[in-house]
Specification:
This protein has 363 residues and is mainly beta. The chain is 5% helix and 38% strand. Strand 4 (40-47) and strand 5 (53-55) form a beta hairpin. The chain binds alpha-D-galactopyranose (GLA).
Length: 363
């Protein structure tokens, strides 16, 4: 099998580090371009029903887009790996083994401060060490990062590896692993924004979504789970059968009000451990379908409510409100403060391992 193409220069960070853009392809022509800045998926080309490739993720043509003041201000985390803790931690603090850890309060929905997606400089903004390797004969891009004890207020030196590969059936497979030398919360996820019509091609309201989840975690006005696992049955959060994203997004509903649309964690109906179907999205005009498989217990469905048209993407098109959606596989938000939720604490001597696959097809 041919070896991976050489990486191309993608830009230089404000601290002077040169970052690269790596390419993965499979034999069907599917292609992913990923930079080691934030372990970010920059482009993802997948076929429509006529076999035409389009780029289905939001992003920028070079590093400048990801480091610009406009991007940093609204920080939508386009395509990045988020960590050490994806999603929110209430009051930007947690207590572990009798000690309270204070984090930066970098997010204030409803004027309530919390920590979001790892803090002021999370894993989305660091330079990862990238290596192109073979795994079972397939090209694999391995990204490594060592998060020092105390970074962003978290305890323990955390060694993280995120591996990207393309499967023969058009899946983007992301495998996460981590070890630590002190107990610490860990919740890693991929923050891709998808638009199956192609990025820059209007909104995602006509995409049909199915979620394998009978319950979700309702939030308070600070977008922190109340602790309840609420049945979705019959309401606007019920995606057990397919509904378009737009069908009920404007419904009079307290939860939709808090999120300014969908921005919630669903509790996956898991019958067994291992990789399980969590979500299916179909886009009727292109015929593209995306299925999300994960080993995680939850999925944050975010409808791109905070995009506002100020960011201009790869094709030179502005990204208006709801022009991309995220399906962030994860543990539930605020787990470090909610002992009844599945634990996110990684202990020394244990290995954190999760896998998520975004698989594409067309009909
Ligand atoms: C997550 C959050 C949203 C928003 C986006 C980034 O998905 O749940 O509220 O902050 O990240 O803009």
């Amino acid at each position: 099998m041919a070896s991976s193409p050489a990486p191309r220069p993608f830009g230089t960070t404000k601290d002077g580090a040169a970052v690269q853009l790596y390419t993965l392809t499979n034999r069907n022509g599917m292609k992913a371009e990923i930079t080691n800045y934030g372990a970010t998926v920059v482009r993802l080309l997948v076929p429509d029903r006529a076999g035409k490739l389009d780029d289905v993720v939001l992003g920028f043509p070079s590093l400048d887009g990801y480091t610009s003041d406009a991007f940093r201000k609204s920080n939508p985390y386009f395509g990045a790996i988020v960590g050490r803790f994806g999603n929110r931690i209430a009051h930007a603090a947690f207590t572990l083994q009798g000690k309270t850890y204070q984090l930066a309060a970098n997010n204030t929905p409803g004027d309530l401060p919390c920590s979001l997606h790892g803090g002021l400089k999370g894993f989305d903004q660091v330079v990862w060490e990238a290596k192109q390797v073979k795994r079972n004969g397939a090209d694999c891009l391995q990204m490594r990062y060592v998060s020092k004890s105390g970074e962003e207020g978290y305890p323990g030196n955390l060694r993280v590896t995120v591996s990207f590969s393309l499967t023969p059936d058009n899946g983007l497979k992301i495998h996460y692993s981590a070890t630590t030398d002190q107990a610490t919360p860990v919740n890693l996820t991929h923050h891709g924004y998808f638009n199956l019509k192609g990025e820059g091609n209007g909104d995602i309201l006509g995409h049909q979504l199915t979620l394998q989840a009978s319950r979700f975690t309702p939030v308070d006005k600070g977008l922190i789970p109340t602790g309840e696992l609420r049945p979705v049955k019959g309401g606007p959060f019920d995606f057990l059968a397919a509904h378009t994203i737009g069908e009920r997004i404007l419904a009079q509903d307290e939860q939709l009000g808090f999120g300014q649309g969908y921005d919630h964690n669903w509790v996956l109906d898991r019958k067994k451990r291992g990789l399980t179907l969590a979500a299916t999205v179909e886009e009727p005009t292109s015929g593209r379908r995306m299925e999300v498989f994960t080993t995680e217990p939850g999925i944050q469905f975010y409808a791109g409510n905070f995009l506002d048209g100020t960011l201009v993407g790869k094709a030179g098109q502005a990204y208006p409100r709801r022009s991309g959606f995220c399906l962030e596989t994860q543990h539930y938000p605020d787990s470090p403060n909610q002992p009844q939720f599945p634990s996110t604490i990684l202990w020394p001597g244990r290995v954190y391992r999760t896998t998520t696959v975004y698989r594409f097809s067309a009909k």
